[in-house]
C-alpha cells in the first residue's frame, strides 16, 4: 500500500485494486484565515486527482474544499460516503458534478472490486465537526490503514477487531479558536493554551496506545495563518501556550513518551507500507524543512497575499440589512428550539465593527425571548466582536454554519461570564431547519437516555460514560483528588457535587467508594 502525502489531512492511497484520495484541501479556508502547511498548492493535482475513489471525512472547509474538488478531482471517481444523519455531504458532491456514490453502512466492512476493503465509522453528535465527522479504515492484501484524521471516537476497538493496523494517521494539533480569541490577560491565555496543548497530546497518545499500529503518521494539522492580522497564531514565537504545534514538535513530544514509530508526510512524501515495515521518501529532508519553518512561512505569506486581499474585497455587502436578515433567518429557528435554547439560557451579543473600524452596532440573539433585537444594555454571558462585513457575507451567501466559517476563522474576539457553553456553538452551526431538527432530536434522545453502569476510579464510583459525549471513563477518566477529567475532550467534573466544571449542564453521577450513593446521586 502506497500512501502519498498531499497536505494537512489529505493523502492518496494507492493499491493494486484502486486508489483513494482523502480530504484534499488546497484553497484558503474560513475567511482566508487558514492555509495548509506545508504548502501543497504546487503539487501535480491534475495527476493526483485522477483516482478511483474519493473520501472526505466531513464538511469542515479544511477537509471539504469545494473549489479544488470541482477543478481537480475526476468526476469518474466514486465517492465513499459516511453514514451521516443529513444529506448535506451528498448534496454538496452532486452540486460539484459527482454522480457515483457508495453509502458505507456505519462500522461495516465494504468489499470493493479487486479485494480492496474499506470501513467508515461516522460520528454523529451535533458537536462532531459540522454535524458529523468520520474515520476511514482500508485493507488490501493484508495491509491495514486507519485514517482517523480529526475524528475523536470514544474508542478504536471497532478497528482493532478487524486485525492489526500497520499505519495509523491521526490529528495531534489544534483546530479551534480557544483560547486565542478570548479577551483575557496574556498570562491567562498562555496558561489555558498550555493546558489545551497538553490535552491534545495526551489524547493523541491514548489513541496511539489503543491501536498499537506499526507506524504513526501525524496529520490534520496545523494550519498556518498568513494574514498579517493573524500571523501571531503561528507556532514560531516560542509560546508554550500555542495550540498549533507542527509535525516536528509532535515527533519531539512523542519521543518523550517512548514513541519511536512516527513518520511525517510532507506534501509529496511517499510511504510504502507493508506488513513488514514502511519505507518513506521525501521531496526535501524533513528536519531541514522544519528548521527553516519561519522562512517558508514568510515566503508563503508574500506569495499568498494577493489571494487574501482578493478574498477580503469580496466580503462587504452594504446592501444587507444585518439586523433584519438575522431576524428573518434566526427567529424561526429560535421558535422551534427547545434543548439548544434552554442550554444557551440567555442572550448572546454580537458587536459588529463598521467599515470605519470604530463604529459598533450591537445585536442580541435572545434565546429565552426567542428574538433577535438591538442590544438593550442588559447583562449578557456571551459576547462576540467581529467585523460587520463578515456577518454581511454570511447572510449574503446564506451560510447555515457560522462555526464552519466565522468562528474557525479566528477573526473575532469573545468574552464570557462563567463556563464554556457548548450549546452556543451548537446552535450557530445549525442555522437550517434540517440541522436544527437533527440537533434537537439528538439532545432529546440523550437527555432521556439512562446510563446505569458504574465503574470505580480511585476512591470514587462514577457512571461509566462521560455525560458530555459518552466517552468510556474507564479508559479516558482520570481522577485527581475530588475531580475527574475526561481526557477525550478535557472536560472536568467535581465528583462531590457532580457538577461539570467545564460547561453548563452535564452533571455526573458519582459517590465515594466507601459510602452509599445519596438519592440524588443515584437518580
TrEMBL record:
Keywords: 2Fe-2S, Iron, Iron-sulfur, Metal-binding. The keyword Iron applies. Signal peptide: none annotated. SUPFAM superfamilies: ISP domain, Metallo-hydrolase/oxidoreductase. Residues 461-523 form the Rieske domain. GO terms for cellular component: cytoplasm. One of its GO terms (molecular function) is monooxygenase activity. It comes from the Bacteria. This is UDP-MurNAc hydroxylase. It comes from Micromonospora avicenniae.
Amino acid at each position: 500500500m502506497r500512501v502519498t502525502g498531499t497536505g494537512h489531512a489529505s493523502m492518496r492511497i494507492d493499491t493494486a485494486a484502486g486508489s483513494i484520495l482523502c480530504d484534499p484541501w488546497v484553497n484558503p479556508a474560513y475567511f482566508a484565515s487558514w492555509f495548509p502547511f506545508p504548502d501543497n498548492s504546487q503539487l501535480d493535482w491534475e495527476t493526483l486527482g485522477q483516482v478511483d475513489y474519493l473520501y472526505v471525512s466531513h464538511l469542515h472547509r479544511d477537509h471539504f474544499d469545494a473549489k479544488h474538488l470541482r477543478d481537480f478531482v475526476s468526476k469518474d471517481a466514486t465517492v465513499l460516503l459516511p453514514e451521516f444523519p443529513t444529506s448535506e455531504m451528498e448534496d454538496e458532491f452532486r452540486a460539484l458534478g459527482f454522480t457515483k456514490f457508495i453509502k458505507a453502512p456505519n462500522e461495516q466492512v465494504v468489499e470493493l472490486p479487486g479485494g480492496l476493503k474499506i470501513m467508515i465509522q461516522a460520528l454523529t453528535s451535533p458537536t462532531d465537526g459540522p454535524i458529523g465527522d468520520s474515520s476511514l479504515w482500508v485493507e488490501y492484501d493484508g495491509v491495514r490503514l486507519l485514517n482517523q484524521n480529526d475524528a475523536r471516537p470514544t474508542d478504536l476497538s471497532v478497528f482493532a477487531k478487524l486485525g492489526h493496523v500497520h499505519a495509523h494517521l491521526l490529528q495531534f494539533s489544534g483546530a479551534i479558536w480557544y483560547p486565542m480569541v478570548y479577551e483575557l490577560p496574556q498570562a491567562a491565555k498562555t496558561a489555558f493554551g498550555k493546558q489545551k496543548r497538553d490535552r491534545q497530546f495526551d489524547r493523541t497518545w491514548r489513541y496511539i496506545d489503543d491501536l498499537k499500529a506499526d507506524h504513526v503518521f501525524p496529520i490534520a494539522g496545523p494550519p498556518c495563518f498568513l494574514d498579517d492580522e493573524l500571523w501571531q497564531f503561528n507556532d514560531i514565537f516560542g509560546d508554550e501556550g500555542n495550540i498549533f504545534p507542527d509535525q516536528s514538535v509532535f515527533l519531539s513530544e512523542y519521543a518523550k513518551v517512548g514513541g519511536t514509530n512516527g513518520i511525517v508526510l510532507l506534501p509529496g512524501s511517499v510511504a510504502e507500507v507493508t506488513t513488514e515495515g514502511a519505507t518513506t521518501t521525501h521531496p526535501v529532508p524533513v528536519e531541514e524543512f522544519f528548521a527553516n519553518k519561519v522562512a517558508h512561512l514568510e515566503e508563503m505569506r508574500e506569495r499568498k497575499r494577493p489571494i487574501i486581499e482578493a478574498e477580503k474585497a469580496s466580503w462587504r455587502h452594504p446592501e444587507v440589512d444585518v439586523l433584519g436578515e438575522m431576524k428573518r433567518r434566526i427567529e424561526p429557528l429560535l421558535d422551534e428550539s427547545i434543548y439548544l435554547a434552554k442550554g444557551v439560557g440567555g442572550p448572546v451579543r454580537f458587536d459588529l465593527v463598521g467599515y470605519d473600524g470604530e463604529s459598533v452596532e450591537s445585536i442580541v440573539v435572545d434565546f429565552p425571548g426567542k428574538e433577535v433585537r438591538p442590544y438593550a444594555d442588559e447583562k449578557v454571558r456571551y459576547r462576540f466582536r467581529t467585523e460587520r462585513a463578515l456577518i454581511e457575507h454570511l447572510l449574503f451567501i446564506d451560510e447555515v454554519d457560522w462555526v464552519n466559517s466565522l468562528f474557525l476563522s479566528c477573526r473575532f474576539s469573545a468574552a464570557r461570564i462563567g463556563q464554556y457553553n457548548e450549546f452556543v456553538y451548537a446552535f450557530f452551526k445549525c442555522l437550517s431547519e434540517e440541522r436544527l431538527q437533527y440537533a434537537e432530536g439528538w439532545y432529546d434522545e440523550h437527555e432521556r437516555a439512562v446510563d446505569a453502569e458504574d465503574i470505580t476510579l480511585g476512591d470514587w464510583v462514577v457512571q461509566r460514560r462521560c455525560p458530555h459525549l459518552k466517552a468510556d471513563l474507564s479508559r479516558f477518566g482520570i481522577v485527581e483528588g475530588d475531580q475527574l477529567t475526561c481526557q477525550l475532550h478535557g472536560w472536568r467534573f467535581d465528583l462531590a457535587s457532580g457538577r461539570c466544571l467545564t460547561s453548563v449542564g452535564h452533571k455526573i453521577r458519582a459517590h465515594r467508594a466507601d459510602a452509599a450513593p445519596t438519592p440524588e446521586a443515584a437518580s
